[in-house]
Specification:
Structural class: mainly alpha
Shape: globular
Largest sheet: 7 strands, mixed
Distance between the termini: 126 Å
Number of helices: 38
Strand order of the largest sheet: 2-1-4-5-6-3-7
Radius of gyration: 35 Å
Length: about 850
């Protein structure tokens, strides 16, 4: 009979074979009674033995995959280029388990399809590569000779066939696989592709990035902690292969984490970066990742598509048609995740069909060039891995459309921010905050483009829209430095009213930042006031906002008379305009002013009024801020029970907004209140809640309260220990009080910082340590305060560390007089100590 496949045909396609060498398996070829290799040709064959490079970071996926292929006859590993799909598939064959043996008892093969081209006879390629072509086999008629031969050769044989790199042959591979699934009974197929095959019965297995430490991870400088993350372990492993002397240390740990984050946890670029440690330190590698495609230009000499990072991306890009390439380039303008409606909006602005854009977005997801994840609102959001995004941005620049697309993106996000601005001051505040936080990367990108290109109009509109959000969320979006940058973007060309609104928010945001910012912030408030008065807008809401933020800034600088007048003017405007939110802000600032002077009755009144106004508007964040200050007022008057109850009400409001980081300072404050109330078990539970929160070290206020609470507890323990231990504990407490004072001062809480500094003085004296430095710092801090309690606190501390009874008695008399003048009771921090010294002196 004629040969089914002519030997001359064998050389038409070059495909490589990798075959397991595990001794427990029996080769498909050479079995008794089975088809042997073609006599006249010897295709390219190599074995899959032990890998030269170790397998890092995919143990869980490997176990899941081995289980999955025993349940499904077709599993496709889907993921972006460089994710490690091929290596994961090979590992399935490299370490067979008892579970897998029944499905591949007749052999297991990896067939690399990279060299195949669409339209070629894929069945012939497989027959040739698997060495199944023969002159003597009669195949069943009707489906093409090579397809029939392949089916017949694999029928009734338990074979695991891995088809590697299918993405450029999707139609051809789908036809072959469908035939094998439907016409053979026991062939199991494992495919790797950047896109699912779309064959009935297919199970897809996503191969994504390795795990990297999150941006909020507080332990990124600890080598032992970061080695828990698979991306870091891979970098270290490959770096040691390149340089056996490489070690992960405290000095390079942060930079290694930075590299892994910026490379999205993708194995290929991480391996290419790690290989550079022979010539560059991790810090140098991290600095140069802005041009990652040039930096990571050396890779495998045996796998062309992985020879460089550029080659890996080119392979994916070349498989796209022109409309998809265009949208792929345009979508690179997004930073982080985006939604389909936003993508549609951008498409309209760019003159594209929204429906077609959605179709192409989904196509890019299928091709692993976009990642789709479910958002907390139940919708899907999309993002490019940063490596993919930078590649696409390069393609956008090549098209000459980068500026146009960037401008349309900025306009889109300015309008989105303006839509959310009034919602941020209403009952919809929580959803607006979450939406803006999801869009943080895009808001930053829009703002950056506006400032970089001199588009002051859009920059100032974005500042005005996000002002209250920036106040609530600190350094989100662009923070106070960004506001200052917008104001310096072609200032002579700016619209006066838009500039004024940015000046108002600069004043407010700068008043709670670093002390060095406050003079400039106050100056911005004066500029805003002058412009509004020149424009004749002294009866407007803008003028009211200017008054309350300027009052807050003035209070911070101890200009109380000026601040009182501005707070009163803001209240008048709020009442005249019927603006409850302006009234809430104005009365809150007035209450804070009274608190800073130690006028706690008036402070409590205005803060309670403010909380009521905020509640009317639905602004939970504003209400929580009023309650925080009200709790401090109650603590200052010695009403610790009401202070704790008020603080807990504020915690409930913050939690209703789902702001995990913002609750930390409050929880720290509650720990301190419970310690002062003698509720040790309650303090312990609150402290545990703080320490479980990954953000607790992220704010000076949170650190300050927790450190102060730890100092209080350490000082209390010292009283119950022998002298030697007592001294050691007192020294520890003194150090903690000093740290707390520094953090609380940085958080804008000078009186509480003074309390902590004075407690440091007292415990240092008890430990027979030098106290003059700490006392000098306390006196310097007290002399800058308008709060009438400051001098009383200093006198109490000096009394408690006095060297003799006469001096102590004199200082105590001065302190009593000062406290009588304040009209409030002594701080609970010192109350027990003062009672004790008074008792001692009365017996002398």
């Amino acid at each position: 009979m004629p040969a089914l496949v002519e030997p001359a045909e064998f050389q038409r396609v070059e495909v490589r074979l990798k075959e397991t060498t595990a001794s427990a398996w029996v080769r498909l070829l050479g079995r008794a009674g089975g088809p042997g290799p073609a006599a006249s040709q010897s295709p390219s064959v190599r074995t899959v033995g032990r890998s030269i490079a170790s397998f890092v970071g995919r143990d869980r996926e490997l176990a899941e995959l081995r289980t999955l292929i025993t349940r499904s006859r077709l599993v496709t590993l889907v993921g972006p280029g460089g994710a490690g799909k091929t290596r994961l598939a090979e590992e399935v064959l490299r370490a067979p388990t008892d579970e897998l043996s029944p499905i591949c008892s007749d052999g297991a093969y990896v067939v690399d399809l990279t060299a195949c081209r669409a339209g070629e006879d894929l069945c012939l390629a497989l027959l040739t590569t698997l060495r199944l072509a023969t002159r003597s086999f009669y195949g069943p008629p009707g489906r093409g000779p090579t397809g029939d031969a392949l089916v017949a050769a694999l029928t009734h044989r338990r074979v695991l066939l891995v088809l590697d790199n299918c993405e450029h042959l999707l139609d051809d591979v789908a036809v072959v696989i469908d035939a094998l699934l439907t016409r053979t009974g026991e062939t199991t197929l494992l495919a790797t592709s950047r896109e699912a095959l779309g064959v009935p019965g297919e199970t897809t297995f996503a191969v994504g990035s390795l795990v990297v430490p999150s941006d909020e991870d507080q332990d990124e400088g600890d080598p032992r902690e970061v080695l828990r993350y698979s991306a870091v372990r891979l970098f270290v492993d490959r770096a040691r292969s390149a340089d056996p002397g490489f070690r992960l240390t405290k000095q390079n740990c942060v930079e290694v984490v930075r590299i892994c984050r910026r490379l999205d946890g993708l194995p290929l670029p991480i391996e290419l970066a790690a290989a550079l440690v022979r010539a560059l330190a991790p810090a140098q590698i991290a600095e140069r990742l802005a041009d990652r495609f040039r930096l990571l230009a050396r890779g495998s000499r045996t796998v062309p598509r992985h020879r460089t990072l550029q080659a890996a991306m080119d392979w994916s890009h070349d498989l796209l048609d022109e409309p998809t390439r265009e949208v792929f380039a345009y979508l690179s303008i997004f930073r982080g995740r985006f939604s389909l409606p936003v993508a549609e909006n951008l498409a309209v602005r760019l003159g594209l069909c929204p429906a077609t854009t959605i179709e192409l977005v989904l196509r890019l997801v299928d091709k692993s060039l976009l990642q789709a994840t479910a958002a907390d609102d139940g919708t899907m959001r999309y993002r490019m891995l940063e490596t993919v995004r930078e590649y696409a941005a390069g393609r956008l620049a090549e098209r000459g459309h980068a500026h146009k697309v960037g401008l349309r993106h900025a306009e889109l996000y300015v309008e989105l921010a303006e839509e959310q601005s009034p919602v941020l001051r209403s009952a919809g505040q929580g959803s607006a905050i979450r939406m803006l936080e999801r869009e943080d990367g895009n808001l930053r990108a829009a703002f950056e483009l506006c400032c970089r290109t001199g588009n002051h109009e859009l920059a100032l509109r974005l500042v005005a829209a996000l002002g209250w959000y920036l106040w609530m969320r600190g350094d989100r979006a662009f923070g106070w430095p960004g506001v200052a940058r917008a104001l310096n973007t072609r200032p002579g060309e700016q619209d006066p009213l838009r500039r004024t609104r940015a000046l108002i928010w600069s004043c407010h945001l700068g008043s709670v930042g670093h002390r060095a910012m406050e003079p400039q912030a106050r100056a911005h408030g004066r500029q805003a006031q002058a412009i509004l008065e020149r424009l004749g807008l002294t009866g407007s809401a803008d003028y009211g906002y200017c008054m309350f933020v300027s009052a807050f800034s003035a209070y911070r600088e101890d200009h109380h008379a000026e601040a009182d007048a501005m707070a009163a003017r803001a209240q008048q405007l709020g009442a005249a305009l019927g603006d409850p939110w302006l009234m809430a802000c104005a009365t809150c600032v007035a209450g804070i002013g009274h608190a800073l002077r130690g006028e706690f009755t008036d402070s409590a009144h205005w803060l309670d009024v403010s909380a009521t106004h905020y509640r009317t508007t639905g602004d939970a964040w504003g209400e929580h801020r009023a309650l925080v200050w009200l709790s401090r007022t109650h603590e200052s008057t010695g009403d610790l029970r009401r202070a704790e109850e008020t603080a807990e009400a504020a915690v409930r409001l913050v939690r209703s907004l789902e702001l995990g980081d913002a609750v930390v300072p409050l929880l720290g404050w509650i720990v301190r209140l419970r310690i002062l109330r003698g509720n040790e078990s309650g303090a312990t539970s609150a402290l545990a809640a703080v320490e479980r929160n990954r953000w607790w070290r992220s704010t000076s206020e949170g650190i300050g309260w927790i450190t102060d609470s730890q100092a209080l507890r350490t000082e209390a323990r010292a009283r119950n220990h022998p002298k030697e231990t007592d001294t050691t504990l007192l020294r520890q407490a003194a150090e903690l009080y000093g740290q707390a004072a520094t953090e609380l001062a940085a958080a804008g809480l000078p009186i509480h910082a003074l309390h902590s500094r004075c407690r440091q003085v007292i415990v240092l004296a008890r430990a027979d340590e030098h106290t003059s430095d700490a006392l000098d710092m306390a006196i310097e801090l007290a002399n800058t305060q308008s709060d009438r309690r400051a001098q009383g606190i200093i006198l109490d501390a000096m009394c408690l560390v006095a060297q003799d009874e006469r001096t102590a008695a004199h200082l105590l008399a001065q302190a009593d007089k000062k406290w009588q003048q304040t009209g409030v009771g002594r701080s609970p921090t010192f109350a027990a100590d003062i009672r004790h010294i008074r008792s001692v002196l009365s017996t002398q």
